[in-house]
Write a structure and sequence with these properties.
Number of helices: 13
CATH topology of the largest domain: TIM Barrel
Number of strands: 18
CATH superfamily of the largest domain: Enolase-like C-terminal domain
Helix content: 25-40%
Bound molecules: D-mannonic acid, magnesium ion
Distance between the termini: 47 Å
Strand content: 15-25%
CATH class of the largest domain: Alpha Beta
């Protein structure tokens, strides 16, 4: 038996807050899991410290599925981003331990490779179309096969995905939520022009993606999807809020543009109808927020039955621990689609020593036993937690809207 003897939560802020769970076993093996929930980090830290870790001590670290069921069913209050991020961190850390104990990179325990590496997409953004495409050209020259385009909206002071810092996009930008102003009309006028210019400048041998970030109604999403069809987007992401999964039936009636959704989902129940009715083409749920590798494999298996591929979320507020775990998952499943990869800051990459590498437009998880990532606890301690909230959005008339 590989007994869990201790576990702790490490909170660090090398440019942004990260929450990491570290589990230690009786033979000295340790494993780590990402538990970061942007803007609600301390809730997950407390859930782990106060309600999960006491139940872990003495359990067999090898019993990953039983531990998952214990934490999911045993909570009574099932699902939700805080609970499922906490379960995800435990699950990821236990997979890390199991793979280290086997002396294998994690993907070997998940069935081995289905592909060389995981195709990733980069993030070109700018206040104008020209600025955005300038960055897109440099990403294409770096060898990216897929690029997300997010451009400023004429008449709006700010919009999702456009950051002054260019390479590192961090939306949690203030101690209390900043208030952004949104106009769907202005936005819908600007996107087709962006894509038309993008195809002119970048050509057709690069995938182009766009994130709507939950801001349209289904019929508006149908219209945008139709407007973009001539430019063949790889996907339109988060077109509408997805609590009502049936919303997507209306979008599907109007456009063949591929749809992606799910970065804020935390269980298979959030996407079961979307997948079974093939209302989407890519499911974006990822390791840290959807219950870990164990649960994400269930979602991918259901998606595989219904022609849905994966497109795991990979923003800067998911730590290199989540990215490492996602890459082992990505190379091991049959219905991989694409992996988001927003670069982390230099400080973050120093705190989290990771072994995944970028080559020919793909990320490779590496061959180290386990996840292939370790946290430098001494360095992590140098970056204390700093409260930061995601913004809120209001329409021009002041109505509180989706950010
Ligand atoms: C975005 C994220 O990466 C994405 O597709 O939707 O930047 C998202 O806004 C953040 O992860 C929220 O914390
Ligand atoms: Mg998104």
């Amino acid at each position: 038996m590989l007994k869990i003897v201790s576990a702790k939560v490490i909170i660090t802020c090398p440019g942004r807050n990260f929450v990491t769970l570290k589990i230690e076993t009786s033979d000295g093996l340790t494993g780590i899991g990402d538990a970061t929930l942007n803007g609600r980090e301390l809730s997950v830290a407390s859930y782990l410290t106060d309600h999960v870790i006491p139940c872990l001590i003495g359990r067999d670290a090898h019993n990953i599925e039983d531990t998952w069921q214990y934490l999911y069913r045993g909570a009574y209050w099932r699902r939700g981003p805080v609970t499922m991020s906490a379960i995800a961190a435990v699950d990821t850390a236990l997979w890390d331990i199991k793979a280290k104990a086997a002396g294998l990179p994690l993907y070997q325990l998940l069935g081995g490779r289905c592909r060389e590496g995981a195709m990733v997409y980069s993030h070109a953004n700018g206040t104008t179309i020209e600025e955005t495409l300038e960055q897109a050209i440099s990403y294409k020259e770096m060898g990216y096969k897929a690029i997300r385009l997010q451009s400023g909206v004429p008449g709006l002071k700010s919009t999702y995905g456009v950051s002054g810092t260019k390479l590192f996009y961090e939306p949690a930008d203030a101690d209390l939520p900043t208030e952004n102003v949104w106009s769907t009309e202005k936005y819908l006028r600007s996107v087709p022009a962006l894509f038309e210019k993008a195809r002119e400048v970048l050509g057709w041998d690069v995938h182009l993606l766009h994130d709507v970030h939950h801001r349209l109604t289904p019929i508006e999403a149908g219209r945008l999807g139709k407007d973009l069809e001539p430019y063949r987007p790889f996907w339109l992401e988060d077109t509408v809020v997805a609590e009502n999964q049936a919303n997507f039936r209306l979008i599907r009636q109007h456009t063949t543009t591929p749809l992606a959704v799910g970065e804020i989902f935390n269980s298979i129940w959030d996407c079961k109808q979307l997948i079974e009715e093939q209302l989407i083409d890519y499911i974006r749920a990822t390791v840290v927020h959807a219950g870990g590798i164990t649960h994400l494999r269930r979602i991918a298996a259901l998606a595989d039955l219904h022609n849905v591929r994966t497109g795991c979320h990979g923003a800067t507020d998911l730590s290199p621990v989540c990215m490492s775990a996602a890459l082992h998952f990505d190379v091991s499943i049959p219905n991989f689609g694409i992996q988001e990869w927003m670069h982390h800051t230099k400080e973050t990459d120093e705190v989290f020593r990771r072994t995944y590498t970028f080559k020919d437009g793909m990320l490779h998880p590496g061959e180290m036993p386990g996840l292939g990532v370790e946290i430098d606890e001494k360095l992590a301690a140098k970056y204390p937690y700093k409260r930061a909230f995601l913004p809120v959005n209001r329409l021009e008339d002041g109505t509180l809207y989706n950010w």
